[in-house]
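To the team - nicotinamide-adenine-dinucleotide complex, inputs and output below.
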Amino acid sequence: MTNVLVTGGAGVLGARLARQLLATGALAAGGAPAQPVTRLTLVDRVPPPADLTADHRVTAIVGDLTELLEPGRAGSSLAGTAALAGADVIFHLAAAVSAECETDFDLGMRVNLGGTQALLERCRGAASRPVVVFASSLAVFGASAEHPLPRVVDDHTMANPQSSYGMQKLICEQLLAGYTRKGFLRGRAVRLMTVSVRPGRPNAAASGFLSAIIREPLAGRRARCPVGPRTEVALSSPARAIDGLLCAAAASDAAWGDPTPVNLPALTATVAGLVAALERVAGPQASALIDWLPDPAVAAIVTGWPARFRTDRAERLGLRPDPDVDSVIRMYLAETMIT
Ligand SMILES: NC(=O)c1ccc[n+]([C@@H]2O[C@H](COP(=O)([O-])OP(=O)(O)OC[C@H]3O[C@@H](n4cnc5c(N)ncnc54)[C@H](O)[C@@H]3O)[C@@H](O)[C@H]2O)c1
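Output:
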């Protein structure tokens, strides 16, 4: 019997993860054999989709994570509940995203840093010593004058975030590693690549256009591309991102190794390559719907991230990147035609 908690459970990855957990019905945690998922708690500031709450195993807790974690808080709370105190696996996905954190520094510090620290503190008080999977980001990497990025980022490349969001993710990785070393919980930080193609409405991530320039033209709508066609990016389909989160949850302490973060596999592509793939899949009328309108603020964030990765540690865990952009687009089309 496995008790699972997902923060950010109404988000794109959180809801997808929840659907997959419910469909599979079981989860392997920390090297143990898979056990039935008997309880799945989704925490988010917005309600999760109705198909998830219709499942008898799901409980939704709606509210701001940092407030829900306040000890002794009146009304709905997460601190001290069985959902948290008895959780076997926690997927911590709730976050303010990159562009939001750049425009509102205090928001990112409160939600991304404060929320994560409060969550880890509550886990420390729990008897279950949960496996905590933390969704970190390639945004922990960046170039500065003294520390240029190597041509290829590997498992030993120094993190050097150049955005508020990346800085908050890096601090949280270190907190997770520290709490793991102390034996309070079993931390698994994974650095996700930019997820594309994200379904649904755009969020405030600086990388959101990397989904929008595919998703919107496929739906017959115009999309804005704020960077030049030669910009290189590191991508992952939603499916491969979920594979990474589940693999992190399943790995034994020995297989995971160091409590340091694992870079998930990346598919390297140029924006021109994405558009060419869109054209191959959906024709020139689709790519004609892209407006090339530079946005220096977005470009400064996205072009500062690395695009080429060598991910030996992830590959030892059995993870692989998407084979090519065409297959990522075809997967998105197949999935959105089903739903
Ligand atoms: N999607 C990507 O390209 C990508 C890349 C790297 C890392 N990540 C990380 O993966 C995680 C999930 O990303 P996603 O793509 O599903 O994003 P998303 O924006 O779709 O989901 C995040 C969810 O967190 C919730 N949330 C935000 N602040 C909250 C708060 N204070 N209290 C409660 N809930 C709150 C939001 O309502 C949202 O549903 C995030 O931590 C993100 O930083 C995503």
